[in-house]
Amino acid sequence: GTSECRKAALLASAHIAFFDGRYSFDATLRRDGSTKFGAGRKWGTFPGISARWNINQEPFFEKLHIDNIVSMLSFRPSWGKVGREPGAEYLMYNKYSSYGVYGSGAYTYAAISPDNLRLTDIKWETTTSWNLGANLNLFRDMLQFDFNYYNKQTKDLLMDGVGIPGSTGFSSLQWKNVGGLRNRGWELYMNTGKFLKTGKFSMSVSFNIAQNINTITDMDATVLASMNGEYSYNNREYLKRLQVGNAVGSI
Fold first, then answer.
1. Edge-to-edge, what's the strand order for the sheet holding 206-219?
2. Four-point Cα dihedral 166, 170, 172, 177, nearest 10
3. What is the DSSP string of the chain?
4. Strand 7-18 relative to strand 143-155: parallel, antiparallel, unpaired?
5. Residue 220's CB: how many other CB atoms inside 10 A?
6. Cα 201 → chain centroid
7. Checking DSSP bridges between strand 195-198 and strand 158-163, what pairing results, if any?
8. What is the pTM of this model?
């Protein structure tokens, strides 16, 4: 018989605010476990911490007497880790299925063959990120701005169907940790309060702009060899490369 993958999660969190809410801190600690991993690799630990400084509530800011212009100004740094598990179960077990018979006459026996290569060294894919955020509201919240600058570093990147030499008896591995990625960039979101109010009609506007820079920081040589094919002269086919130091899918 078979059984479904089992998961477990332990979560602890704390929130602290002081000086009339001008400063606040949040901390979390998550411990995730999954039977998709082999012995000694089932658990992953993922902490996180964030803070907020409401600058417009500071005494020195209030002395400026511009609260009718700047209704909110805050700074929000954060740091944390998250994990991802593979999308298949029973990776750490050898699986077999029937494969015809062998022998002849009265001496025939059922044959079996392996369905997979046992994978016991798969690890959690882990993304560590930090973010610097800021909020600015103007004219009694009529204009609201949310800005974030972030950097995310992923290691032990999980990939399915990784090609391997046919001499193993298989063409690919179900899953493998193949490398690392970095994503960094910024995003700005702006929205307005309701204006042009006429009866039940009103209007508001939202706008966002962002930039993300993706970089391969490390990659398994087997993956690079299998995905970097020769140039093709066929119409509408483009040459794409996986190269350490460049973005995924670079031309």
1. 7-18, 23-34, 43-54, 70-84, 125-138, 143-155, 179-192, 206-219
2. -100
3. ------EEEEEEEEEEEETTTTEEEEEEEEEEEETTS-TT-SEEEEEEEEEEEEGGGSHHHHTT--TTTEEEEEEEEEEEEEEE--S-S-TTS--EEEEEEEEETTEEEEEEEE-S--------EEEEEEEEEEEEEETTTTEEEEEEEEEEEEES-EEEEEE--GGGS-SEEEEEE-EEEEEEEEEEEEEE--EEEETTEEE--EEEEEEEEEEEEEE-HHHHHHH------STT----B--TTS-TTB-
4. unpaired
5. 16
6. 41
7. unpaired
8. 0.82
List phi, psi (to 5°) of 43.
-110, 140
Which amino acid appears at position 241 of this protein? R
Q: Torsions phi, psi of 247, nearest 5?
A: -80, 160
pLDDT tens digits in sequence order for the chain, 251 residues long:
445 667 788 889 999 988 888 999 999 999 999 888 888 889 999 999 999 999 999 999 988 989 899 999 999 999 999 999 998 888 888 888 887 788 777 788 888 888 778 888 899 999 999 999 999 999 999 999 999 999 999 999 999 888 877 777 777 888 999 999 999 999 999 999 888 888 888 899 999 999 999 999 999 988 888 788 777 777 766 677 888 999 987 77
Beta bridge partners of 135: 74, 146
Identity at 212, one-letter amino acid code: N
Q: Which of 21, 75, 20, 81 is nearest to 47 (CA)?
A: 81
Show the CA angle centred on residue 99, arms to residues 95 and 101, nearest 5°: 135
33 with 55: CB under 8 angstroms? no
